[in-house]
Design a protein that fits this description.
The complex is a heterodimer of chains A (294) and B (266). Chain A is mainly alpha-helical. The termini of chain A are close together. With 266 residues, chain B is an alpha/beta fold. In chain B, helix 6 links the parallel strand 6 and strand 7. In chain B, helix 3 runs parallel beside helix 5. Chain B is globular, with a radius of gyration of 18 Å. The chains are: A mainly alpha (294), B alpha/beta (266). The interface between A and B is medium-sized, with 18 and 25 residues.
Amino acid sequence: MRSSALPVLTVLPVLTVLGVITLLWYVAAVWMNAPWVYDQAARAGAAVDLRGLIGQTLTQERPVLPAPHQVAQGLWDGIAGQAVTSKRSLVYHAWVTLSATLLGFVIGTTAGVLLAIGIVHNRAMDQSVMPWAIASQTIPILAIAPMIIVVLNSMGVQGLVPKAIISAYLSFFPVVVGMVKGLRAPDAMQLDLMRTYNAGGGATLAKLRLPSSMPYLFASLKVGIAASLVGTIVGELPTGAVAGLGSRLLSGSYYGQTVQIWAALFGAALVAASLVAIIGMVERVTLRRMGMAR
Amino acid sequence: MKDTVVTGRPVVEARNLNLVFPTNDGPVHALKDVNLTINRGEFVSFIGPSGCGKTTLLRCIAGLETATGGTLTVNGMTPDEARRKRAYGYVFQAAGLYPWRTIAGNVRLPLEIMGFSRSDQDARINNALQLVDLEGFGRKFPWQLSGGMQQRASIARALAFDADILLMDEPFGALDEIVRDHLNEEVLKLWARTGKTIAFVTHSIPEAVYLSTKIVVMSPRPGRITDIIDSPLPKDRPLDIRDSAAFIEISHRVREGLRAGHGDAV
């Protein structure tokens, strides 16, 4: 276990990096929003000093780059300033995105695990499925997402499911790759041991391959859930800004609401970080219980 | 049962057994013209330098490797049929216990796969752990046990389903000498209590002589048997039997056999 005697020493570098990023952001905000301020001043025939410049660049309504405190305020207003059922609430939109993400993650993970089991047990699948899985990931998701939405819409499927399918499309891949590796993790001796018991493929899978694959599964799930979220947000773009973090991004860009865009981006980042952290926690508990913690 | 097992019908019979592996450098003769009979209740050691085919021979008996020539029967069946009928327990050089199962859970593994009833499983686990002196450790996890204890647990796992034959592939090769001496004694006790037929691969001369009723000396390139020694030592063997004249004489003969095999290979 790592020593927790001097937490200050670990917190300090983190805060320093955060401080530097925030500072650079402010500088960038002043620099990028300055042309508009100068433009306004020139029209009014007034001069701007440095103080006025900084003050005005950091408080614009539609800045090119919103300052950190504007984003924080937008985020806070979106999370706490609205009823969660309101269409202006980030919590509402985050939930719309999260529900599709979770459904897509479950579909993608299930498909990934099943494909990996097939690949490990069937030579034909081993040679035929993987190239397709790789090819599927080389197609830009932005190109394929509208097609999925349109095709499913024509079949009468709307709302959650099309987004979940796009989300699954992105998240099954890391699971396939990780699980193929994980299911093949047992060494020759462990497989020979199963042969001495005359164990079939099913018993070997259940008692040896699946438990051995757990560390690989969790590593894949962390990548997969983040991919799921990206897939869902991309899936929300062509739906015409109905609901979800993706639609907030889209409507923000329609109306030049940069603060709204950045707040939605940070909202998405928060959701992703929380999901990865939850999987990390489950991973730690599971692997410790299985005696596989590193 | 305990006293009638010393001389029995043949359990393993190999006649002109050959095994050739194709490799990029041409065929490798892993086993050449091996003739061997292992009778019921015998303790047979295979000794020789690496590459002499001792492990390969054991794997052939287990049906994990298939000979390319000659005949090999186990309990009157082909090795593969014998494997399907779960005729033997196999102990590998590494204990290979599952870290996610307790010691009892690891011993339960073959029993679950073979479909024993739950109550039967529990009785068998107790019995097997008792045989290797690990009663009371069933609820521990492998990492809580020493290397020697882990290997004993793996022997218990091989004993749990009560196969007549126990195949052991350098089971104590990775352990230090003091632990190895102790485990050798335990294996002899186990053998006396269960009356199993044991085939044991080793590269230690004292271990082979101490344990065996029959010592099979092998040599490499091609892998073959150079000498088969029927041990005159009594069945009851305290550790200090290793200082007796008979023990030293057999050790000498084994060493001669190994040297001769090495000599004509050069």
